[in-house]
UniProtKB/TrEMBL annotation:
Protein's name according to its UniProt entry: Cytochrome P450
Keywords annotated in UniProt: Heme, Iron, Membrane, Metal-binding, Monooxygenase, Oxidoreductase, Transmembrane, Transmembrane helix
GO molecular-function term, one example from the UniProt record: oxidoreductase activity, acting on paired donors, with incorporation or reduction of molecular oxygen, reduced flavin or flavoprotein as one donor, and incorporation of one atom of oxygen
Signal peptide as annotated in the record: none
Subcellular locations according to the entry: Membrane
Requisite cofactors: heme
Family: Belongs to the cytochrome P450 family.
């Protein structure tokens, strides 16, 4: 392909403009206000070179040791405020919640939320409030929680049956299937796990939306990023992802519309049944996008980290199993009422979420009105990243061995996930806090209690369990957790 003669001069002119613009912004802003400290940044790319290709949560944690818990980074041409301590998280999520409660606009989130018809990516607005109410009452409310309980018991039973053979099991897969089946049955009426759509499994389609939601060039280079998105094929990939996802969800809606006429009186309504007539198709799809993206992998990953830490610490496993087995007595299964008595189990789940918050950062917010965080000025348009992974390890709060798994620390420290405590923020806080925290914690507790009541667990290889992390939006184990379950015979069969 011939490169046109004007290409090089245009490119040089373009980068010179960006260079001068960046320098001017740097000098003018620092002289007129008190900006948070920043690591040195380069023209055009800002601090991108310091974070790309690395574990961003660890890199930003390291940088915060030097520049403080309120840091200003430039990713491309965009300013990002990075929060890494409890105190500063409380200023953002509580004191300045109204100033920081919107979400940034991005090409990927706009498309995949059906033009912000969802809850999680929708800008702060009346529409967001309405959709959040629908999600809370229709998916997370009392009526649906009874359905959750019933479906969970059935799925748990089938998981337990599949584990009974004393052979090696990949718990990552098993737990993901468990949560996927439960959430899909409650939300969509059935599990779509084995169904193919456009040559992909429905899980592959949902996973691709997570990748596309992580952002593109135009999010950090608003003026010229679209060229890079086009040339790199990102736009095409987004369109393909959208069309697969939209097609899958449309099929679900069509199936419901089709079946609604024929449903008998025994049929228990799922989320789609209950909402399909009051929401538009795009609102329904936006809501389902949040449910499929927000409720499944997060809970499954938490269970896997909890099991990993428990297996790694035989003392903790023993203490936990003693508690569970004494609370359950000689029944064949754990039921929900037993769990309210299990204090140590609740501490183990909290400790898991402290050290392994599945998304290491809260969903990015955007500042809507000028305010001060930690005494520094923050301007509208600044994106706000809260490093939940770092906050859970803040040595000023978690004084004794903050990186060690030690559930007993919760005997002294009171935290809940309702958004009032900021010592750890696995579910965020303020008005954009995760609405699913209660349901998620119950699912995790119920699953762990059953797995540890019914089985003793051994690692495949003797020696220390590998705990390496992998991922950007969700942090998983790098290697799957493969264990051998040994049936416990103390309970009644
Ligand atoms: C262990 C499981 C879960 C974890 C760790 C988790 C974590 C989070 C986090 C960190 C946020 C961002 C909060 C913020 O920006 O302050 C969030 C938001 C959200 N989560 Fe969860 N979540 C979990 C389960 C669920 C479940 C079961 C649902 C149910 C559908 C759900 C739905 C949502 C929604 C809709 C939002 C956006 C809220 C808004 O912007 O108003 N999550 N979650």
């Amino acid at each position: 392909m011939d490169i046109p003669s004007y290409f090089l001069p245009t490119l040089i002119l373009f980068f010179t403009f960006i260079f001068i613009y960046t320098l001017r912004r740097k000098t003018s802003s620092t002289t007129t206000c008190n900006l948070p400290p920043s690591p040195p940044w380069l023209p055009v790319i800002g601090n991108l070179h310091q974070v790309l290709g690395k574990d961003i949560h660890r890199t930003l944690w390291d940088l915060s040791q030097k520049y403080g818990p309120v840091m200003l980074l430039h990713l491309g041409t965009q300013p990002f405020l990075v929060i890494s301590s409890t105190e500063m998280a409380s200023q953002v999520l509580k004191t300045h919640d109204p100033d920081m409660c919107t979400r940034p606009i991005s090409q990927g989130s706009k498309r995949l939320s059906f033009n912000y018809m969802d809850v999680a990516f929708s800008p702060h607005s009346d529409h967001w409030r309405e959709m959040r109410k629908v999600l809370v009452s229709e998916f997370l409310g009392a009526k649906r929680s009874r359905m959750f309980k019933k479906v969970m018991e059935i799925e748990m039973e089938s998981l337990v049956r599949s584990l009974s053979a004393n052979t090696i099991v990949n718990l990552d897969d098993k737990l993901l299937h468990l949560v996927d089946d439960v959430v899909c049955k409650v939300a969509l009426g059935k599990s779509y796990r084995d169904e193919m759509f456009n040559g992909k499994t429905t899980k592959e389609i949902v996973d691709e939306t997570v990748v596309m939601l992580s952002g593109s060039f135009s999010d950090i280079f608003p003026t010229f990023g679209w060229i890079l998105d086009k040339l790199s094929g990102w736009n095409r990939r987004l369109e393909k992802c959208f069309s697969d996802f939209d097609g899958f969800l449309q099929m679900v809606l069509d199936e419901h519309l089709d079946q609604n006429a024929r449903k008998d009186s025994d049929h228990e309504n799922d989320l789609v049944d209950d909402c399909i007539s009051r929401l538009t198709a795009d609102e329904m799809k936006g809501l389902l996008m949040n449910v499929l993206n927000g409720a499944i992998d997060t809970s499954a990953v938490t269970m896997v980290w909890a099991m990993s830490e428990i297996i790694k610490n035989p003392r903790i496993m023993q203490k936990l199993q003693n508690e569970i087995r004494s609370c359950v007595g000689r029944k064949s299964r754990v039921d929900e009422s037993d769990i309210t008595k299990m204090r140590y189990l609740k501490m183990v789940v909290k400790e898991t979420l402290r050290l392994h918050p599945p998304p290491p950062f809260l969903i990015t917010r955007e500042c809507v009105s000028r305010c001060q965080i930690g005494g520094y000025d923050v301007f509208p348009g600044t994106k706000v990243m809260i490093n939940s992974w770092a906050i859970g390890r803040d040595p000023r709060i978690w004084k004794e061995n903050p990186t060690e798994f030690h559930p007993e620390r919760f005997e002294e420290i009171q935290v809940d996930f309702g958004g009032k405590h900021f010592e750890m923020v696995p579910f965020g806080g303020g008005r954009r806090a995760c609405p699913g925290y209660n349901s998620a914690v119950s699912t995790v507790e119920f699953t762990l209690a059953n797995l540890l009541y019914l089985f003793d667990w051994e690692t495949v290889k003797k020696g220390d369990l590998d705990m390496e992390e992998e991922g950007f939006q969700l942090i998983r184990r790098k290697t799957p957790l493969c264990l051998v379950p040994i049936k416990y015979n103390g309970q009644q069969q």
